[in-house]
Amino acid sequence: MQNLTRNTVSLAALACLLAPAISQANDYSTETPTQAYGAVAAKPATALSAFKTDELKESNVWGRIRSGYAIPDIDNALVSKHVTWYSTRPDHIARTSARASRYMFHIVQELEKRNMPTELALLPIIESAFNPQAYSSANASGMWQFVPGTGKDYNLKQNMFKDERRGVLASTDAALSYLQKLYGMFGDWQLALAAYNWGEGNVQKAIKKNQSLGKPTDFESLAELMPAETRNYVPKLQAVKNIIANPAQYGVALPAIDNQAYFTTVDKTSDIDLTIAAQLAELSIDEFKALNPQFNRPVITGGEQTKILLPKENAAKFTTNLATWGNKLSTWTTHKITGAKESIASLASRFGTTPDVIRQANNIPARSGVKAGSTILVPKISTSSNTDIAEHIVDNAVLALEAERTVRAGKRSSRNEPMSGAQKLKARAANAVAEIKSRVTGKRAKTMVAEPKTRKRAG
Fold first, then answer.
1. Catalytic member of 58, 110, 127, 200
2. CA–CA separation, 195 vs 189, rounded Å?
3. Among candidate residues 61, 65, 56, the one with its CA nearest the CA of residue 242
4. Which CATH number covers residue 183?
5. Which of 183, 187, 306, 359 could potentially form a cystine with 364 if both were Cys, beta carbons 3.0 to 4.6 Å apart?
């Protein structure tokens, strides 16, 4: 396989940018390690100067990314394997490119500001297929796949109302800061990438082991000590780099991504329902969520501290429509559960809605109830119609679930709960009466109440 990466772009390759295609990654399970902020520069100043000049000439982000490649190449069997995988899945490439088109310009801009290699903009293809809602079995979330602990280390808020691991601006800033810190630790981008996937502590241990054996400590020399996921991680990125560098060589057609900002930030002054925000921006709910995936609930809280992202033309529509909006911006408030008597059904009745609406707004599964001390969203009533949700509630609200307690025909359901002593006595009495009736009539009563079996204790 030829290594076609740095700063060389043929006219044929550029022509391919006008066709359709990129993908959705099946494997976005990456557990990211935890550490605090640190930063080190990456790309030589001379390369950056040339890049800045070329930047003005590029009409397509793919070409702009190629111009800034700066991570040394690798060429091995794993790279070839992953080139084959990606290049033979045009549907995957198409879906990924469609999602990337919203975010790629912003990521490249941020990489430029930090003098970082621009091929790092391709990393979300490996991590999440540019799906900001991606969630892995290791609890990693978002486009850059942050686990909760690392997210906290990089000040990504995670509460009932939002998870900034999915936020476009916050997660990108955190990911690039983390990668810079890792490069500062290892002085090598391939090892920094391995540490992003495997954890810096594990990479350090592998380095020390090879040093003690007198072996090299570059990525390929350490690969045999790494788990399979990490061993494939850098080759996957190299494979994508190769395809982006010369898509025609691999029979891949890349859809053009304009070299201009896709979105802009919009200030909001108070709580606003997600559906109302999308309506004012004249966007579909899906498109609105694609740019604002961090919001977990149907209301966007946070006042002026929280911004929303909108395509430029829709931002203008949002401002115009907001100025003439004559209705409430938010129809939700919070309620704290005080005791077991507050069931989903009773709350729905109290706040003039249905149990399904409350469950959907709070992501409460069927047959689950809410424990005392939990905070849930409920529809606003007249006394709270003009009040935003307080900041301390947003930051500290918790939702704890339990098996739902139900009441049927005046009797307490026994689902998931043992019978009390009084209930057992009633059951025995009912069985006794039924047994007497059966003896008198010569047949067993059809409505006999069966006492549940109890487990015998050993001894």
1. 127
2. 10
3. 65
4. 1.10.530.10
5. 359
